[in-house]
Design a protein that fits this description.
Elements lengths: L4 E10 L2 E6 L12 E2 L2 E3 L6 H13 L8 E8 L7 E8 L2 H5 L9 E6 H6 L5 H12 L6
Parallel strand pairs: 1-6
Antiparallel strand pairs: 1-2, 1-4, 2-3, 2-7, 5-6
Length: 142
């Protein structure tokens, strides 16, 4: 595992839907008004899992056991291709969805059909490609 990475994203699936949120519509942030996945930038000496799971808690109030991560891949970072970013997948259940407490980092959240996200004009472009890779991995219950 690379020690130099910019951040981690995690796609959380339930019944062919993925947990997403609509980013703020502001020119102060990358990808304004785009549908995004949980995750974000690395803090201090976090591992990729710690980064993704901290961001998941901050953004959605969910605590997820890292053992629930079923797939992961390292990609060039969109912000600095000389560095890498981590992308991972986990499954969540109805009890997790019911426990979501949406933070203040976006306009709203939803469980969006995976096919809708993949076809959406307003999704974060590099995450569409990463989600396609995960879908191509034939993971159970996507």
């Amino acid at each position: 595992m690379s020690k130099s990475f910019t951040g981690s994203k995690i796609a959380l699936f339930h019944d062919n839907h993925v947990l997403v949120y609509l980013r703020e519509d502001s020119d102060r942030i990358p990808f304004p008004a785009a549908w995004d996945l949980p995750g974000g930038g690395r803090e201090n000496d976090e591992t990729p899992d710690e980064c993704a799971l901290r961001e998941l808690f901050e953004e959605f109030g969910l605590l997820l056991d890292p053992a629930r991560i079923v797939w992961r891949k390292i990609y060039p970072s969109w912000s600095d291709p000389a560095l890498v970013a981590h992308f991972m997948v986990a499954h969540i259940g109805p009890e997790d969805i019911a426990a979501v407490v949406f933070g203040n980092e976006g306009q709203r959240w939803e469980m969006m059909p995976v096919a809708t996200y993949l076809a959406h004009e307003a999704c974060v472009p590099h995450l569409r490609d990463r989600l396609r890779d995960a879908a191509a991995a034939n993971l159970p219950a996507l």
